[in-house]
Amino acid sequence: MQKRTVQRGRPAGSTTFDAELAQAFGVAVRALRTERGIAQETLANLAGIERSHMGKIERGEHSPTLAIIFKIAGALECSTAALMAEAENRLSASET
After folding, report:
1. What span, in angstroms and rounded, lies between the C-alpha atoms of 83 and 78?
2. pLDDT tens digit string along 46-64?
3. Looking at residue 14, what is its pLDDT?
4. How many C-beta neighbours within 10 Å does residue 40 have?
5. Alpha helix (H) residue ranges in the chain
6. What tens digit of pLDDT does each residue of 1-22 get?
7. What own/partner pairs with CB < 8 Å and gap ≥ 24 does 5-13 have?
8. In the prediction, which pLDDT does 29 show?
9. If DSSP codes are grouped into helix, strand and coil, which group holds residue 70?
10. Which of 10, 24, 33, 78 is the 20 to 30 A CA-CA neighbour of 58?
11. What's the rounded mean pLDDT across residues 17-43?
């Protein structure tokens, strides 16, 4: 019996990007960042990601991985739960 190779990543044609959720998360990150008086470039440096990637996350153009969410929360000095709750509040507000 021949062993199948395991391919990493999503199957071809599938997507997990949810624009509305990405937008709500980005707005939450931007709100917390500005509330704390942190520049986008500074937050990106603290989180260990590129500034351009942070901009795309804040604009809702990229959906961050779990690892990036943890890095952003750490850079904002808040829990991931608080960050996600803020995103959930933004998502709920956009639905009404």
Report:
1. 7
2. 999 999 999 999 999 999 9
3. 60
4. 17
5. 19-35, 40-47, 51-58, 66-75, 80-95
6. 566 676 666 566 666 778 899 9
7. none
8. 97
9. helix
10. 10
11. 95
Per the structure block, which two tokens stand in for 96? 């009404």
Q: Which of 72, 24, 32, 66 is nearest to 48 (CA)?
A: 72
For residue 31, give its domain range. Answer: 19-95
Task: Say what the pTM is.
Answer: 0.81
What's the CATH number where 69 sits?
Answer: 1.10.260.40
In total, how many domains does the chain have?
Answer: 1
In a domain, 2, yes or no: no
In a domain, 35, yes or no: yes
Q: Give me the mean pLDDT over the 72-77 stretch.
A: 97
Does 46 reside within a domain? yes
